[in-house]
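Progress note, sequence design subtask.
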C-alpha cells in the first residue's frame, strides 16, 4: 500500500517525484542500490538505467546520497528527474492524489466492491456490515 500514499497530499514529496508516480506503470519499478548504496525499489530513471540496477561499483550506504546531491540538484533545477531517487513500491500505479483519509475510504470501498463481485462466501459478512 505504500505507493498508494506517495501522492497523498503531503508537501514533503518533491513535485518531480509526485509527477513521476502520477504517470508510473507497475512494470517501471526496479530494485536498485545506485541512489543510497542499499537495495530499495524505485522508478527507473537515467541514473538507475545507465549504472545498472544493482551495481557492484556503488559505494556503501550512505555515501551515494551525498555524492549525488549536486548532480541531482542541478538536474532538478532544470526540471529533470534523471538523478532523483524516485522511491516507489511494486504498485506505483496505485498512487492517487487525495488526502490519506479519503484514500483509505476509497480503497476500502473498492476492495469491498471487488470482493462482492467475486462473490466470496467469506466476504459476504464484511460487505453487509459496511453497507
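Output:
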Amino acid at each position: 500500500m505504500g505507493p498508494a500514499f506517495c501522492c497523498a497530499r503531503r508537501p514533503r514529496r518533491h513535485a518531480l517525484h509526485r509527477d513521476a508516480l502520477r504517470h508510473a506503470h507497475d512494470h517501471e519499478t526496479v530494485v536498485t542500490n545506485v541512489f543510497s548504496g542499499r537495495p530499495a525499489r524505485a522508478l527507473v530513471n537515467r541514473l538507475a538505467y545507465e549504472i545498472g540496477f544493482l551495481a557492484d561499483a556503488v559505494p556503501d550506504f550512505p555515501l551515494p546520497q551525498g555524492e549525488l546531491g549536486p548532480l541531482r540538484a542541478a538536474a532538478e533545477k532544470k526540471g529533470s528527474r534523471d538523478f532523483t531517487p524516485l522511491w516507489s513500491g511494486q504498485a506505483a500505479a496505485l498512487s492517487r492524489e487525495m488526502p490519506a483519509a479519503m484514500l483509505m475510504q476509497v480503497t476500502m470501498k473498492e476492495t469491498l466492491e471487488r470482493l462482492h463481485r467475486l462473490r466470496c462466501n467469506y466476504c459476504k459478512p464484511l460487505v453487509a456490515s459496511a453497507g
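The longest helix spans residues 100-118. Work on this subtask will continue into the next period as scheduled.
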